[in-house]
Amino acid sequence: MATPDPDKVMSKADKLTKLSFTRWSTDWKGATGLYEQAAIGYRLRKNNEKAKEAFEKASKGQEIISSPWDAAKHMESAAALAKELSHWNEVSDHYRRASELYIECGRSQPASDALVKGACALEDVNPDEAIKLYNDACVILEDDGKEQMTFDLYRSGTSIYIKLEKYTDAATFLLRWGVAAAACNAVNSQCKAYLSAIIVYLYVHDFRQAQKCYDDCTQVVAFLNSDQYRCASKLLSAYREGDAEEIKRAAQSNAISHLDHAIIRLARKLPTGDLEEIKVIASNEHEALDEDDLT
Predict the structure, then answer these.
(1) Distance of alpha carbon 75 from alpha carbon 82, whole angstroms
(2) Record's family (predicted)?
(3) DSSP letter at 2?
């Protein structure tokens, strides 16, 4: 049997959604089925532009007839076709819309997954938007108590921040990862995130922030009992001494070797910046602390 002409099917569907002198009410249920049929037909003909349009209309139809799950699925199909067509703004918009529709269904995981698909598609062409998508995907899962599922998303987002040389943002994202890990009692991941953040601050020779981060993290008992704490302690001590060789030795430790590759690469380049200047800053910080203890 011959496959129906998708142009004719699409035209018939459009007519069902419009009022006229002879049609006093719309038939979105009938139109939606036709839009779905047209989308498949266009995809078989490799007419991605028309297929995308048909999936967009099918999604709208499913939404109108109160089927947000199917609407989300069709919107994801439209987003995937937008990627094939390099319509990058639509990729983000469509995956975001699909995520919203999944949220309407009360389904946080597919809602997050939709945003992650968008982020993966945009990592190279629009990394800033990709990070936003990863961030929003994490929020969705965390709001639903699924912190364990965010780890790969934090890893991907951190990697993009580092590629963009947005190191302060990377450290902040890592600390958020640590909070998420703590929420689901993933102690090892929590400690790795804390050490990673300290390394990022040291890489941009912000000793003050590295020390502050370390001090904050040592308030966490789990971190105090970890290899990551011992490694961070050795690193900061070597910086206070201005000992470049000891910094390099500490950066070769097993605790660092088990971190993510993006962080390992930064650690292996330590020390960066003017070590003598950092030593003076560290000394002043230490003296200030001693004075506080005396008062």
Answers:
(1) 10
(2) Belongs to the SNAP family.
(3) P
Q: Model's pTM, two decimal places?
A: 0.90
Instruction: Note the residue count of the chain.
Output: 295
Q: Calculate the dihedral angle through the C-alpha atoms of 190, 194, 200, 201, rounding to the nearest 10 degrees.
A: 160
HSE-up (13 A, CA, CB side) for residue 285 = 19
Give CA–CA dist 205/196, Å, rounded. 14
**Beta carbons within 10 angstroms of residue 234's beta carbon:** 17
Asked whether the predicted pLDDT for residue 294 surpasses 50, the reply is: no
Hey, what amino acid is at 178?
Answer: G
The label of the residue with tokens 């990627």 reads 83
| Domains of the chain (ranges, CATH numbers) | 1-16+27-143 (1.25.40.10)
CA atoms within 13 A on the CB side of 40: 7
- Please state, in angstroms and rounded to a whole number, the distance separating the CA atoms of residues 7 and 96: 28
Q: What is the pLDDT of residues 126-185, one digit of tens each?
A: 999 999 999 999 999 999 999 999 999 999 999 999 999 999 999 999 999 999 999 999
Give 72-129 pLDDT, tens digit per residue.
Answer: 999 999 999 999 999 999 999 999 999 999 999 999 999 999 999 999 999 999 999 9
Helices 207-217 and 167-183, axial angle in degrees (round to 10): 0
Higher per-residue confidence, 1 vs 103: 103
Reading the block at residue 153, the tokens are: 């998303």
What is the distance between the alpha carbons of residues 112 and 102, in angstroms, rounded to a whole number?
9
For the record, the structure tokens of 132 come out as: 């936003």
d(CA 94, CA 149): 23
- Written as one string, the DSSP assignment of 55-95 is HHHHHHHHHHTT-HHHHHHHHHHHHHHHHHTT-HHHHHHHH
Residue 188: how many other CB atoms lie within 10 Å: 13
